[in-house]
C-alpha cells in the first residue's frame, strides 16, 4: 500500500500554483476539470471541480500534491491552531532549503519561515501555502 496524493483545496489557483510550482519547484503533471457527485462525496456546493496534480515527473514515487478548486466555492477555512492539534498537520517536502526560501521570498509567499537545525546538520524550515497549509521543508543536502 502507498499514499497516492494529498489534496489541498484552494481559494486562488493561480497563487497556489505560484507557491507550489514557482516557489517549491513542483511540476504540473495534470490539469483537468470534471463533473462528479462531489456534493455527496465531499459536501461540495456543485458537481464541477478543477484538479491539478503536481509532483516530480522524474521520481514517480515522490508523491503528488493535488490542488482542488470546487465550482461554486467553498466554506472559509478555520483559522489554523497556534499549536499542534488533532487532525491534519502538514505536508513535508525534501528539497534544497536556501534556494527555496529565496524563491518564496521573491514571490512574497510562504510567510516568515520558522527554522531549526537538527543534530548532524539537517536543516528544516516551516512555511505556509496561500491556503494556510503548513509545509515542512527538509533539506535533502544535495547540491
List keywords for this structure.
143 residues, alpha/beta, 2,3-Dihydroxybiphenyl 1,2-Dioxygenase, domain 1, 2 domains, four-stranded mixed sheet, 18% helix
What does this structure look like?
This protein folds into 2 domains: 5-70, 2,3-Dihydroxybiphenyl 1,2-Dioxygenase, domain 1 (Roll); 91-139, 2,3-Dihydroxybiphenyl 1,2-Dioxygenase, domain 1 (Roll). It is an alpha/beta fold and 143 residues long. Helices cover 18% and strands 35% of the residues. The relative contact order is 0.22. The longest helix has 11 residues, at 13-23. The two termini are 32 Å apart. The chain is globular. A hairpin with a 5-residue loop joins strand 7 (123-128) and strand 8 (134-139). The model has no long low-confidence stretch (mean pLDDT 91). It has a 4-stranded mixed beta sheet with strand order 1-4-3-2, with helices on one face. Strands 5-8-7-6 form a 4-stranded mixed beta sheet.
The top-level CATH class of the largest domain is Alpha Beta
The CATH topology label of the largest domain is 2,3-Dihydroxybiphenyl 1,2-Dioxygenase, domain 1
**Share in β-strands:** 25-35%
State the shape: globular
Q: Uncertain runs with pLDDT below 50, 5 residues or more?
A: none
The structural domain count equals 2
- SSE pattern, N- to C-terminal: EHEHEEEHEEE
Overall pLDDT: 91
Task: Name the structural class.
Answer: alpha/beta
CATH architecture of the largest domain: Roll
Distance between the termini: 32 Å
Radius of gyration: 16 Å
In short:
The protein is built from 3 helices and 8 strands; from the N terminus they run E-H-E-H-E-E-E-H-E-E-E. The protein is of the alpha/beta class. The chain has helices at residues 13-23, 38-42, 97-106, and strands spanning 5-9, 27-35, 48-55, 64-70, 91-95, 114-117, 123-128, 134-139.
Amino acid at each position: 500500500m502507498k499514499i497516492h496524493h494529498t489534496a489541498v483545496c484552494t481559494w486562488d489557483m493561480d497563487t497556489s500554483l505560484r507557491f507550489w510550482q514557482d516557489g517549491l519547484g513542483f511540476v504540473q503533471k495534470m490539469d483537468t476539470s470534471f463533473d462528479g457527485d462531489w456534493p455527496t462525496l465531499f459536501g461540495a456546493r456543485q458537481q464541477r471541480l478543477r484538479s491539478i496534480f503536481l509532483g516530480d515527473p522524474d521520481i514517480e514515487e515522490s508523491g503528488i500534491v493535488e490542488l482542488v478548486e470546487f465550482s461554486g466555492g467553498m466554506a472559509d477555512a478555520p483559522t489554523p491552531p497556534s499549536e499542534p492539534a488533532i487532525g491534519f498537520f502538514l505536508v513535508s517536502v525534501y528539497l534544497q532549503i536556501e534556494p527555496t526560501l529565496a524563491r518564496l521570498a521573491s514571490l512574497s509567499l510562504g510567510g516568515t519561515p520558522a527554522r531549526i537545525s537538527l543534530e548532524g546538520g539537517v536543516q528544516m524550515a516551516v512555511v505556509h501555502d496561500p491556503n494556510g497549509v503548513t509545509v515542512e521543508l527538509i533539506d535533502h543536502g544535495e547540491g
